[in-house]
Design brief:
heterotrimer; A mainly alpha; B mainly alpha; C alpha+beta; A: globular; B: mainly alpha; two-stranded antiparallel sheet; 5% strand; Gluconate_2DH_su3 (chain A)
Chain lengths: 243, 436, 594
């Protein structure tokens, strides 16, 4: 706001524009005048309500829950993955840029053997969302075939056995699904959900942070840096406190 | 809104009165006789380099570019000023004969600047001719010389096309002038020092400080009895400039004030909002001597009797909670002890400007703001907006905490005041995380 | 050409550290400068203030400040003959994607290279004999001096440190060694702009341990500054708060050296400076005679092409893109490993690293107290600071005990060996080990080889249809021996400090690939030197082939020091910019006769 406006205006005026918008290239001369947060750098909380966007099938939800709650079970160290909101976290992530693989280079050709050999791990042209869609179906099919039951109906020990087999690359989930890579993807995502800021839907009540003693979205440890080997007793805080 | 209607009604009445009263003193252009009346600005380019240079200084002091320079080019006008009465557009003051002020003679120029009598009729007092009236003839001649060297720009502007009836009747301003305009030049006070007189000349004239820092009455005129004692200018507050020890400049030396004017900060406070712009575009260009003169004058004023703010009482549990909120949100820049970062981020400790009217603090929290960029202090650091993160109560709480910590004591900020400002500024609502 | 912009004196391609340092120098000298930056405008209070910055998932895990691979990536193979594949996912490389470039999200370690790093070839021959150098060269190393000495670089290092506000303690003031600083550093003429940072718990343990072992620990010079500071441009910085959200993040309180915190506030307000954001330079356009360029062709975010004419073109993108832009512009000759002809793409190299992890039962390390450059290092085994007479390698590594962050996702595998990464076993382990783990990092030199180089990929293209850059690289024997040696020293230190269950990750033990590495300190490909047959740029960073093209970046390093590259890049930027405005602009032509 210019002071001339201030001078003669008794009402209010929107602040000066500065950088027009992110649409199109901008020629900047002078320092942009904007003072409010850039819209595209505001945090994007997980959607509230409205149900699952990607994990729409009930079977998929149950399969993910069965896997996630063995990867992070409820115990003395904290709630299970699903209790901590990791399903909601995953669904929200998969419904956005991450799930769409927006950052990835997905151009063909992809020669799987060559790329795996060179990069030390299998490479994909599919997005994380697509990998979940096919991976979860493959897991369910695997359970039906080997155990004659739905994956989520298997005993915890049996699920652990399958997960251990996937992790070791010893279980074949069929064509188009790399079981070991899918295990790694799920393990990565469930732990992300357990340890990311609660604003993304997981880490409910900051359970993951409390488990390890991480104080969260703080920004000033000057009062503590000189203290040696002490439990600092800091309460964790989320980027967007809910209270 | 109710307030606006009342004011609007008042202006209508004055318009009627004004139309009937012609030969009022405020319209007496006798002071302009010293100016030439034969050559127009378009026909003239000063060759007196010293006069031009002095004139540029007068232009800086008067901050003409702040309103008259926009995308169309230097001094080509086009700045839209929203007023409760409609939208005004700043005029093209380049020497362009058709669309600028090229058709004006020096006498016309004097009349417009010092008396608000323009080439298309009366000027609206958004143009601070009420202060420019104090300009000496010499400064006016110099300014005229400077304007003659400005590049003409063709940019046709309909200054009051955005004003609805009856506010588009310029003659209405004659009535306003009759009531509020003092058509007299600057008179030095013999008993005071040269510095003091120079300071007063800048404060009351080109600097037009009272335009913001004095309160205004319902018709938008400055209240003389509360001269420089602080003015609410909508969504910013221009604080008390008298040496009031609680909320004013008490404790500031003339040197502190000079430093502030030249750099936007005195090491404790940091200019923000409209004051940052005033420093950036105008005040930093003052000579050291002139900046000090302003300080000399302001420190000589009688202290206002604005009372000491009463400290709010915060429960111990609230204090403990808010100490943590401060550490999470504020201390990285404003310091664990409210010490700020010298020359860049305002301190909360020993910063009187924070203890009075909380408008600026609320505004900064909701919309963010930016310090002045000056030759000596280049950073012009931004204060981030918290509108997206904190709700009205959270904003009010942390401001109350700051106003009652680090040796401070001041009235609590109410969530209602924050809500009102949030609406007035069209600041966004806070984001809320999923509660599933 | 349609959409031709008014001519500029200088066009800057990429507005990161190098670009903004150069633009500042050049505009201050009165030149009219246009910068073209592929990323968007970003500033502290509007884009990464403290209320937005401490978000690990967004900035570190999803890397939202970094240039995504979908915009441009590299292809990679270990050796010629292999089919290179594109790097599809997030990997070691951390390129900038905004005004400020990687300088916005870097960690802040602010090292001067050692005098030895600039003259590896000459000094190896001088100290160990010409035969030793010859045998290294015969083995495949491609050692060559930089054409500039540390002594010549010192004033430019000093200038950049002053702009950046670097914190630290001098260890060599005008030749006088000072305990507590890095006694191995080249002589500096004055102290650091701001004092060294404080020690965390782990840093103080590391300092005590290494001191007790007879080494010379010192606090790493940092672009996380220790107290408020006003730089020579009149820009103020704030004090680091040890927030632990530093590398990959912007800095919310003006305490990390960056173009935003140090240069842009002054630069952006100069009337002779313009920046086109979200605009990508496709390539430079040569004059008919091929000896100079006319300007650069660019494309806006909306796909509109345009041309920016200029008298001087400065290519100041990240190392990879500097090389790629030269190749896409047809400036100079592509290096061929079979013949060692050509200079563009030559002497590509990486940084040879390892890490050593230990656990301290019952400790409270409070790892969340951190800074991107927060650490204590010993340089006793870096560069040529130790006698290599009886060793089978040259070079070395800085060995640091660091406290950069305690971000929970990034550290979730930081558990004692033998524990599963999932289930209650993981939860129990992480709940305990988060506070008990400590890390030592060996950051080593890398020597160039004949076989490692950069070229355009024949198959894969970017979003504009231009070929991607292809990287051909693997570890060489010398560097693998070096890191093996220094890693053992690090293990000894960890053991002496009391660390248990020690884990070693020696990156050179297996073939290089971009997913296994963590460092973005990729160098070379457009190296400086005094011989046009073996370097693309002369010692003023001026192209030997087109004299109005200058390029600054780690791409100009003929070999990598055991340090982070940024300070050297910044110093080279000052040097190049001064050569332009003090000499070149008045008398265009080669600044050095070939």
């Amino acid at each position: 706001m210019n002071r001339r406006e201030a001078l003669f205006s008794l009402g209010s005026m929107a602040a000066a524009g500065g950088l027009a918008s992110r649409a199109g290239a901008a020629e900047l001369k002078g320092f942009p005048k904007q003072t409010a947060m850039s819209a595209d750098h505001l945090p994007t909380p997980a959607r509230s309500g409205g149900g699952f966007q990607v994990l729409k099938s009930e079977t998929d939800q149950k399969t993910v829950k069965a896997v996630f709650d063995r990867l992070i079970p409820a115990d003395d160290f904290g709630p299970s993955a699903s209790e901590a909101g990791c399903l909601e976290f995953l669904d929200d992530q998969l419904s956005g840029d991450y799930g769409a693989g927006k950052a990835l280079y997905l151009e063909a050709p992809l020669s799987p053997e060559n790329e795996e050999a060179i990069m030390g791990a299998p490479q994909f042209l599919s997005t994380p969302r697509e990998r979940y869609e096919t991976g979860l179906k493959a897991l369910e099919a695997y359970a039906q075939e080997t155990d004659g039951a739905a994956f989520h109906a298997l005993s915890p020990d049996r699920i652990d056995e399958i997960l251990t087999g996937l992790e070791a690359g010893e279980i074949d989930l069929g064509e188009g699904v790399n079981g070991q890579a899918f295990f790694e993807l799920m393990l990565q995502n469930v732990r992300e959900g357990y340890l990311a800021d609660p604003l993304y839907g997981g880490n409910r009540d900051m359970a993951g942070w409390k488990m390890i003693g991480f104080p969260g979205a703080r920004y000033d440890y000057r009062p503590y840096v000189d203290r040696r080997n002490e439990d600092l007793g800091l309460t964790p805080v989320s980027l967007i406190p809910n209270d | 809104m109710a307030k606006w209607i009342k004011i609007a009604g008042g202006v209508v009445v004055i318009a009627a009165v004004g139309a009937g009263v012609w030969a009022w003193d405020s319209l007496n252009t006798g002071r302009s006789k010293v100016a030439g009346d034969s050559v127009t600005l378009a026909e003239f380019t000063s060759e007196d380099a010293e006069a031009v240079e002095r004139g540029e200084y007068v232009m800086r002091m008067g901050d003409c570019a702040a309103c008259h320079t926009r995308e169309a080019g230097e001094f080509a006008g086009g700045y839209e000023i929203a007023t409760p009465f409609g939208t005004l557009v700043s005029s093209n003051i380049t020497p362009d004969a058709e669309t600028g002020i090229g058709g004006m003679t020096e006498k016309d120029f004097f009349n417009a600047l010092r008396q608000g009598i323009g080439q298309h009729g009366m000027l609206y007092p958004a143009m601070p001719y009420t202060a420019y009236a104090k300009f000496t003839d010499r400064d006016m001649h110099d300014l005229w010389a400077y304007m003659s060297t400005v590049e003409p720009v063709q940019n046709d502007i309909d200054e009051n096309g955005g004003m609805p009836f009856p506010f588009n009747i310029r003659l209405a301003m004659a009535g306003w002038d009759m009531l509020f305009f003092d058509n007299s030049g600057f008179e030095p006070v013999a008993s005071e020092s040269d510095a003091w007189n120079r300071g007063k000349y800048i404060v009351d004239g080109g600097g037009h400080c009272a335009a913001c820092h004095s309160p205004r009455n319902a018709l938008g005129a400055e209240v003389a009895s509360a001269y420089l004692q602080g003015g609410n200018i909508g969504d910013w507050y221009a604080p008390d400039l008298t040496p009031n020890p609680h909320v004013g400049l008490g404790g500031s030396s003339a040197e502190d004030i000079a430093t502030y004017l030249k750099t936007g900060t005195d090491g404790v406070a940091v200019a923000a909002g409209p004051m940052a712009e005033a420093v950036e575009h105008s005040l930093q260009y003052l000579t050291d001597e002139d900046a000090l003169a302003v300080g000399t004058y302001l420190t000589s004023l009688p202290a206002s009797d604005n009372p000491a703010p009463k400290a709010a009482s915060l429960a111990e549990t609230d204090m403990a909670r808010l100490t943590d909120v401060y550490e999470v949100n504020c201390s990285a820049c404003h310091g664990l002890d409210g010490e700020g970062i010298e020359g860049m981020v305002p301190a909360f400790s020993a910063n009187h400007g924070l203890l009075g009217d909380p408008t600026n603090m609320i505004h900064a929290m909701l919309k963010g703001t930016r310090a002045a960029h000056t030759h000596d202090a280049q950073t012009a650091a931004g204060m981030p907006s918290f509108a997206w993160k904190m709700d009205d109560t959270q904003v009010a709480d942390i401001l109350t905490y700051v106003r009652n910590s680090f040796g401070n004591g001041a009235e609590a900020v109410s969530p209602e005041a924050v809500a009102e400002m949030r609406e007035a500024l069209d600041a966004r609502e806070p984001l809320r995380a999923a509660t599933n | 050409m349609a959409n031709e912009r008014p001519k500029a004196d200088v066009v800057i391609v990429g507005l990161g550290w190098a670009g903004s340092v150069m633009a500042e120098e050049l505009t201050r000298a009165g030149l009219n400068v246009v910068a073209i930056e592929r990323g968007a405008w970003r500033d502290t209070s509007t884009d990464f203030p403290p209320a937005v910055d401490p978000d690990e998932l967004r900035w570190h895990t999803r890397r939202e400040l970094l240039q995504p691979m979908s915009v441009e990536t590299t292809t990679f193979r270990n050796k010629t003959g292999q089919q290179a594949a594109p790097v599809r996912n997030w990997n070691a490389f951390q390129f900038g994607w905004n005004v400020g470039g990687a300088g916005t999200h870097w960690a802040g370690m602010s090292w001067r290279f050692l005098p030895w790093d600039f003259e590896v070839a000459t000094q190896t021959a001088e100290r160990y004999g010409q035969e030793r150098l010859d045998s290294l060269m015969a083995e495949g190393l491609q050692l060559q001096d930089w054409g500039v000495s540390y002594e010549e670089m010192a004033p430019y290092y000093d200038r950049f440190e002053r702009i950046a506000g670097t914190s630290g303690k001098a260890g060599n003031l005008n030749g006088q060694k000072i305990k507590g600083g890095n006694v191995f550093e080249g002589p500096r003429e004055r102290e650091y702009p701001t004092p060294q940072l404080k020690d965390t718990n782990w840093m103080s343990m590391y300092r005590q341990t290494t001191e007790g072992m007879g080494y010379n620990p010192f606090t790493i010079p940092a672009g996380n500054i220790s107290q408020a500071y006003v730089n020579p441009l009149g820009v103020t910085m704030g004090p680091c708060t040890y927030c632990g959200f530093c590398d990959f993040h912007g800095c919310g309180n003006f305490s990390k050296s960056s173009p935003q915190a140090c240069i842009l506030p002054a630069l952006m307000r100069r009337s002779n400076f313009t920046v086109l954001t979200e605009t990508e330079v496709l390539h430079a356009v040569k004059h008919e005679d091929g000896k100079t360029v006319k300007g650069v062709k660019f494309v806006t975010r909306d796909g509109e092409e345009g041309f920016q004419p200029a008298d001087v073109v400065c290519i100041t993108a990240y190392q990879m893109d500097n090389v790629r832009l030269m190749l896409l512009s047809g400036i100079g000759e592509q290096y061929d490993p079979a013949t060692q002809q050509g200079t563009i793409g030559r002497n590509y190299s990486y940084q040879t690293c390892s890490s050593v992890t230990g656990f301290f039962s019952g400790a409270k390390m409070n790892p969340f107290i951190g800074g991107g450059a927060l650490g204590v290092q010993i340089d006793d085994f870096n560069g040529d600071n130790f006698d290599h007479s009886d060793l089978d390698f040259i070079g070395g590594a800085g060995i640091m005990g660091y406290s950069t962050n305690g971000r929970p996702i990034a550290n979730m595998n930081g558990i004692r060996p033998g524990n599963k990464r999932w289930g209650s076993e993981w939860k129990e382990a992480y709940a305990r080990d988060y506070q008990e783990v400590a890390n030592i990092f060996c950051q080593g030199t890398s020597m160039p080889t004949r076989d490692a180089y950069l070229s355009l990929d024949p198959t894969y293209k970017d979003r504009h249809g231009q070929p991607l850059l292809r990287l051909t690289f693997d570890w060489n024997r010398n560097d693998a021996s070096m890191i093996d040696y220094t890693t053992k020293k690090a293990v000894e230190i960890m053991r002496e400090a009391g660390g248990e269950d020690i884990m070693v990750d020696n990156q050179a033990e297996a073939s290089w690939n971009p997913y296994k590495q963590h460092s973005s300190h990729t160098i070379g490909g457009l190296v400086m030197g005094s011989n046009p047959a073996t370097s693309a740029l002369n010692p003023y960073l001026q192209s030997w082939d087109c004299h109005n093209v200058f390029s600054v970046g780690a791409s100009a390093f003929p070999n990598n020091g055991g340090y982070n590259p940024t300070l050297t890049v910044g110093a080279l930027a000052v040097r190049a910019a001064r050569a332009i405005h003090e000499t070149y602009i008045n008398n265009p032509g080669p600044l050095v006769e070939a």
